[in-house]
Write a structure and sequence with these properties.
Helix content: 40-55%
Number of helices: 11
Number of strands: 7
Shape: elongated
Low-confidence stretches: 159-170, 243-247
Structural class: alpha/beta
Length: 247
């Protein structure tokens, strides 16, 4: 009598924890995860504190951490560090409005395996998560290009050029342009243009890194840009900054 073939059991779904303060984005991610038979929705947190409390609790260990960087009470980097420290098998995936090289590199150093810009977020984040669990390191093309450019610059000169934005002719700011940014946002933008890192800006301004990130997030939105170089270029075009070589 021939032996009966048995179908091997399906592997258990990957558990996903989402840390995102925007309710619509969080609901979008939850719906995508719940539709996928290969994933299990573990929960959603709205802040660093909620996420850390979740990680410190007795809940199921997450296989995937989907996390935003700009959270109301701090940086998602702290959540990434805490998650990989407690659960070494957890694979963090950042999805954020920040597209500059410093944010990407800091996320990778903290333990992230992928980085997706919110403007380029896939319609089905579950597929991206499954690809990451299969060995991929998802990263938005626009961000990958900037990181590669930063790497080449470091290789060729030993350090990044603070004014790496394309050359443009500055003009006198209009009244609308002058009122576009708050005083603090203007100060942060000026320090960005001079090549200072988030940590250095925070120290110079007497602020936390999270507060600096919040100012940057706001000025990115006002200038309709996604990176430091784009912010500097647009601010110069509007007359909000002058090239350091200008008299």
């Amino acid at each position: 009598m021939p032996a009966t073939e048995t179908t091997p059991p399906s592997p258990p779904p990957w558990g996903v924890l989402v840390v995102e303060d925007d309710a619509h984005a969080r609901a979008f991610f939850e719906a995508s995860v719940r539709r996928s038979p290969g994933l299990q929705w573990l929960g959603g947190a709205r802040s660093v504190r909620e996420a850390l409390d979740w990680l410190d609790g007795d809940a199921v260990a997450p296989d995937v951490l989907l996390v935003d960087l700009g959270l109301p009470d701090g940086s998602g980097l702290d959540v990434i560090s805490a998650a990989v420290a407690r659960y070494p098998h957890c694979e963090p995936l950042v999805i954020s409005v920040f597209g500059d090289e410093d944010s990407v590199l800091a996320s990778i150093e903290a333990g992230a395996l992928g980085y997706i810009h919110k403007d380029a977020a896939p319609e089905d984040i579950a597929l991206t998560i499954l690809e990451m669990k299969a060995g991929a390191s998802p990263i938005s093309p626009m961000i990958a290009r900037r990181v590669l450019a930063r790497y080449r610059l470091l290789q060729s000169s030993g350090r990044p050029e603070p004014w790496a934005a394309p050359a443009t002719t500055a003009q006198a700011p209009t009244d609308a342009a002058r009122s576009l940014l708050s005083r603090r946002e203007q100060e942060v933008l000026t320090l960005i243009a001079r090549g200072f890192s988030y940590a250095e800006i925070a120290r110079l301004q007497g602020l936390s890194v999270h507060t600096v990130q919040t100012h940057i997030k706001h000025l990115y939105g006002k200038l309709a840009v996604h990176s430091k170089n784009e912010a500097v270029f647009e601010a110069m075009r509007l007359g909000l900054l002058q090239h350091p070589g200008a008299a």
